[in-house]
Amino acid sequence: MSKVTDKNNPPSTGGVSRQTFLRVAVGSAGVVYAAGLAYPVYRYVASPVEKAAKESAVTEVTLKDAQKLAPGSALMFKFGSKPSLLIHHDDGTWTALTAVCTHLGCTVRYQEDKKRIHCACHGGVYDPKTGANVSGPPPKPLKRYEVKVTDAAVIVSRSQDRA
Amino acid sequence: MKSLFSSFYAWADERLGLEELVQFAKQKTVPVHSQSFWYYWGGLSLFFFLIQFATGVLLLLYYRPGPDAYDSVRQITYDTNFGWLVRSVHSWAANLMIVAIFVHMFSVFFMKAYRKPREFGWWSGVALLGMAMVFGFSGYLLPMDDLAYFATKVGMEIFSVVPMIGPKLADLVRGGPDVSEYTVHRFFALHVVVLPAVFLPILGFHLWLVQRHGNAVPPSEEAKPEAQRRSESFFPNFMMKDFAMWLVAFNVLSVLAFMFPWDLGPQADPLKPAPLGIHPEWYFMSQFQVLKIFGDLFPGTLGEILGIVVFTAGLLLWFLIPLYDNTQEAGRRARRATYFGLFTLIALIVTTIWAYLVL
């Protein structure tokens, strides 16, 4: 900055100096520009994330004709964006749970012969009725959904206590 | 905090020689004279290129070449947050970059900045402009809407005038006798891999030459005695002005991209007739018109070949100008080169306007 004294801008008398004012003004404009640039870019990049979040906000999925599923077998379905598992037990009861292993997120499978839910990645095992983690590395049980069976479909919904 | 930084700087400097760069930047000066305004246009071209690089990477996140191309661009434009804006900025900056390069090139030409020792700067610059135009041509097809489809179809006809191998060459570039999903894939590979891989090193070379030789001054300035010439330091004075120009360019680009979002036409359909008034991008309009003029004067292939020959010859002369106008004296060659530049500029403008008038 040169030492030119300007009649309209006398040296500061306790107020804000011109240099400080300029610094703050330029700095604020820079922040506004950076934010104006960062916001659309962030939203653009995050677009699929937002879409998935919207999808997983569903509270109920209707699986047409799933009531025909033979006892002792299971099927995979999508609850929102999450892979999920519907099991028809031998005793006629039904269980629906997320199929995402609580250890590192692999998709688990229902082993019909061993009557257990197994994760092939690190050998985690869950109870097929409760979703409880029985053995292996999984730290938490699989989340269960509520199941309603009708003549035409199986309706899976987010259970009240877990929503 | 300060001492931590300075000790890290000393550590890095010992290994990387940062101080040399700092000294170079401190000593670098930029001439100040009545024509200094034109010094900003190379930097502006670079600015738009950086924008193209950034928005191009963003578009790559969602663009799918091949049969899905149109659908993916439709999704980017209508289903993705701010996708319309990213695409609009990419299209607008592409056009502004070509404008900036043209201004830069003609200012270099008229300031005679191509003379010794800056010949390689001129040659690499003309090559960069040529590549920027191929960037534009290949990128134009990628959305695969009807305008893109027919403009590419017409543009590819240029190959047909190459004697003997022309049609075969066109088939190879297109990946078939017609513009198709194979063409999109090829142009995509060209646009995002091949061209950047060639463009970036040449751009680096071009920028390195600018550092090596510094800014050229126009002959009028060169004629002045050393004491009367003025200059300013590059860092921070000129750099700040450079950034100020970038800011202006950024604002212009933002306004254009927001106010006039780039359109997406209906999907390309080879069975539909070409839309009325189909024409290439503005920076190909001059060639387009020259071909038309020669086609009218000499019907048939002869006109097409003549048109291409004239254009290629002009380009070659343009490219080789540093070898012709190669002395600092204001002699006959210098005058002729200036006339040639004026003729070229006027011919480009007139044929471009003409082309739009007769659409």
Can you describe what's shown?
The complex is a heterodimer of chains A (163) and B (359). Chain A has two domains: 18-45; 59-162, Rieske [2Fe-2S] iron-sulphur domain (Rieske Iron-sulfur Protein), CATH 2.102.10.10. In chain A, 23% of the residues lie in helices and 29% in strands. Chain A has helices spanning 18-45, 47-55; strands at 60-64, 73-79, 82-88, 94-98, 109-111, 116-118, 125-126, 133-135, 144-149, 153-158. In chain A, the strands form two sheets. A six-stranded antiparallel sheet of chain A has the order 1-10-9-4-3-2, with no helix packed on it. Chain A has a four-stranded antiparallel sheet with strand order 5-6-7-8, with no helix packed on it. In chain A, a hairpin with a 3-residue loop joins strand 9 (144-149) and strand 10. The model of chain A has no long low-confidence stretch (mean pLDDT 88). Chain B is globular, with a radius of gyration of 23 Å. With 359 residues, chain B is mainly alpha-helical. The model of chain B has no long low-confidence stretch (mean pLDDT 93). Chain B has helices at residues 2-16, 18-27, 40-60, 69-78, 83-110, 119-141, 146-156, 166-174, 181-213, 219-222, 234-259, 285-297, 301-324, 332-357; strands spanning 29-32, 230-233. Chain B has a two-stranded antiparallel ribbon. Classes of the chains: A alpha+beta (163), B mainly alpha (359).
Quick overview of this protein structure:
The complex is a heterodimer of chains A (163) and B (359). Chain A is α+β, with helices and mostly antiparallel strands. Chain A is 23% helix and 29% strand.
